[in-house]
């Protein structure tokens, strides 16, 4: 474990806490894409299959449980909670995310470390995570104004993978045979997708103005 | 280490 990876995991945890706070405090999920939340739940379920087979560390196990439980709780909240589900922007959240699931799964069948179910699902979860934010970014562009907590949620979500890139560089330099090409290339693509959001987020922070994404 | 397929990262 290095400082970059710890910072990345904590930033990821923070993004989930900010999202839970927004939903709990405002009893509303307006501006949040249910499709992105469903994709994240799928990412964690596909990636943490080894939760019960490979014990890495207490930290690793606890974080996996927290990520799976929180992503399922958010999906449950947005679909079933009587008060919250009414504020879901159903007509704005129209990204055809099934194409993302199909495309990334086919890619995982072709590009994986080993043609075993666990490795294919791991690669699938890595590719899917890279594109999972797209429905959310599209929804933000459509809904025009972005409330602070939602903006912070997306910002932390993008920042966490940027820390992971620093972690992979650090591990590549310090561990003799560390290569994790699938995660690293996919992580760079994932962080790149946030680039324009980061730009508009920085502008709105600099001008102290409301975050607006061009339609 | 990370090469024997064990995914030690989240």
From TrEMBL, chain A:
Tell me which UniProt keywords the record has, alphabetically. Answer: Endoplasmic reticulum, ER-Golgi transport, Membrane, Protein transport, Receptor, Transmembrane, Transmembrane helix, Transport
Give the record's GO biological process terms. protein retention in ER lumen; protein transport; vesicle-mediated transport
Q: Name one Pfam family in it.
A: ER_lumen_recept
Predominant location category: endoplasmic reticulum
Gene Ontology MF terms? ER retention sequence binding
Q: Which family does it belong to?
A: Belongs to the ERD2 family.
UniProt-recorded name of the protein: ER lumen protein-retaining receptor
Give the organism the record lists: Lupinus albus
């Amino acid at each position: 474990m290095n400082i970059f990876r710890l910072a990345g995991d904590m930033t990821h945890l923070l993004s989930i806490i900010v999202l839970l706070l927004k939903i709990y405090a405002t009893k509303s999920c307006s501006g949040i894409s249910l499709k992105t939340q469903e994709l994240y739940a799928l990412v964690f379920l596909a990636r943490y299959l080894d939760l019960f087979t490979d014990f890495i560390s207490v930290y690793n196990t606890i974080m996996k449980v927290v990520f799976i439980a929180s992503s399922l709780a958010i999906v449950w909240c947005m679909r079933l909670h009587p008060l919250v589900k009414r504020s879901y922007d159903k007509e704005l959240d129209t990204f055809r995310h099934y194409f993302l699931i199909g495309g990334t799964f086919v890619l995982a069948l072709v590009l994986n470390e080993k043609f075993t179910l666990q490795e294919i699902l791991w690669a699938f979860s890595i590719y899917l995570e890279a594109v999972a934010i797209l429905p959310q970014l599209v929804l933000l562009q459509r809904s025009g104004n972005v409330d602070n907590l939602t903006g912070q949620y997306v910002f932390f979500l993008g920042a966490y993978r940027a820390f992971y890139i620093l972690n992979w560089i650090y591990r590549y330099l310090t561990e003799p045979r560390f290569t994790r090409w699938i995660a690293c290339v996919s992580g760079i693509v994932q962080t790149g997708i946030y680039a324009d959001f980061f730009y508009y987020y920085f502008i709105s922070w600099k001008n102290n103005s409301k975050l607006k994404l061009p339609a | 280490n990370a090469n024997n397929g064990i995914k030690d990262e989240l």
